[in-house]
């Protein structure tokens, strides 16, 4: 069955409806005023989605300007709820194929990989260096707004999407208004991130072909320790590649080098390629060559002689926002809890997050003396309100991962390389699921935690097909054949079976 035909299966449409309605963006109405709170039947959802997939209805949108820290604004596109669901249906069909062909050096908008993953890998690289890092920080000017849609769709074709009808549907769903001229990938759309990743994959491939990005660092030869320009010439003469590390998160890119000459050579190489291929326009204000401490994705990474610090880059901004909370109403307290939880979830690997929590606790303590908020004796908790209308604020308990280290988010290069073997040892539709599950589980048996055997591993349905279990990533786990056989034919009191039952309960 082709990808386009799969989009019309009721189980795929219902799955997309559930995903979109459970997202926070479903609260925001589109131009037609419909949101998740509108009383709409399941049948109407299905009918409207099918009309958009067949092209009988034009995608409609409105834009919102969000202020940025530098005083400028970012344009966010909000499309109708039915259009979002239609895009989600298409995304569910193409993302497994795209994901298995994206570069391992791309971290943005990918399942199982996030901001803390790339920051952890960068921190580990910086810590392994004997000297301070030389960095090439690259930022593209309005990258999303300048990507040609036709070239982005052509990138999908190069990454394995061969169904012409599904590519036509993607193009149709990304034409968000009558004024759209085919230039730019709208931020706020569901298909936007994967189109951006696919388009910038050509940059990742260029870096992989011209630089040494994976092999361990080797020490410089003694003859070239003082004259690094001669080291570069020697590399070119020997047809060897510069050894550096490359990380891309959407349109934000950083390259870590070992010396100034390598840094300048890499910067020249990548800038010439971007200009020659006309991929995007480099933002000279944000792109720079650095030495020592650097900032990336809101984190400030500092290397000392004996330690490594990962700090919050926007701490001063958060301190100002903290002072604006008055704690004089239940709504104000709820807004504070949401604000603080977002900071803790994003910066839980920062070294100074405990220091920031102390400032939060001190602010709550002093506000408890002249407002309605009260401190619970013997605890680091505060409450607002009386009777049944009580809001509790517990900053230290909100940070459940108080001992998390950046090492807990490291992606091991071993299972990233082993996943390529799956394409050879697996055939058919299950290859896609095996690759994604192998990546999400980091090459380990979901039940036993043991290392997965590439040639002897099976996919298991958590909710069986007999009980209407579907082939979705949320309902599938990857386990070794021995574990699989024990689940089906072993004793119900075995350790593996007990772990499996515990997994079902969670």
Provide structural commentary:
It is a single chain. This protein has 506 residues and is α+β, with helices and mostly antiparallel strands. Helices cover 44% and strands 14% of the residues. The strands form five sheets. A four-stranded antiparallel β-sheet has the order 4-5-3-6, with helices on both faces. A three-stranded antiparallel β-sheet has the order 7-8-9, covered by helices on one side. The chain is globular, with a radius of gyration of 25 Å.
In short:
It is built from 20 helices and 14 strands.
Q: What is the 3D form? A: globular
Task: Supply the helix-strand structural class.
Answer: alpha+beta
Number of helices: 20
Proportion of β residues?
A: 5-15%
Number of strands: 14
Arithmetic mean of pLDDT: 80
Unreliable stretches (pLDDT < 50, length at least 5) are 221-226
User: What kind of assembly state do the chains in view correspond to?
Assistant: single chain
Q: What spatial order of strands do you see in the largest sheet?
A: 4-5-3-6
Write the layout of secondary structure elements.
Layout: H1 3-6, H2 10-21, H3 42-54, E1 61-67, E2 73-79, H4 81-99, H5 115-128, E3 134-139, H6 143-146, H7 149-158, H8 164-174, H9 192-210, H10 228-237, E4 245-249, E5 252-257, H11 260-277, E6 288-291, E7 294-296, E8 299-303, E9 308-312, H12 315-324, H13 330-346, H14 353-367, E10 374-375, E11 382-386, E12 389-393, H15 395-398, H16 413-418, H17 422-425, H18 430-440, E13 457-461, E14 476-480, H19 481-489, H20 495-505
Antiparallel strand pairs: 1-2, 3-5, 3-6, 4-5, 7-8, 8-9, 10-11, 11-12, 13-14
